[in-house]
Amino acid sequence: MLIRPHVLLCGLLLGSLAEVDAWADDKQAAAPDFQRDVLPIFEAKCLSCHGAKRRGGKLDMRTLESMLTGGDTGPAIKPGNAQKSLLIELIHFKEMPPKKEKSVVTSAEIELLRRWINAMPPAATSTSTARP
Length: 132
What we know:
Elements: H1 5-29, H2 34-45, H3 64-69, H4 86-92, H5 107-119
Helix pairs in contact: 2-5
């Protein structure tokens, strides 16, 4: 049985598209959840200065919406781009949490925050605005 080149090419293309679609589903499934994964880090390391009682730099980190709004220096996160997110930059260069604080963000926690931000669609809108 002779397979025509265009039929073979079409089959390969469809197979490749199915793999890409499965990869995208895996990436989305592996994305950290704000309430379950991210908020506990913020509660332990950030909310004493950026929460209900205090808002250092006018930044509230209790919700995704408030971080997208940001504080004095603008939005804390840039959805889809952790590398350009102020939050990651300040943690990476150890400017936050301040040195006087005893709890530093671990490398595993910063990687989780990077994955969370990178998994957001670039024009993310808040879907998790529940306040603690």
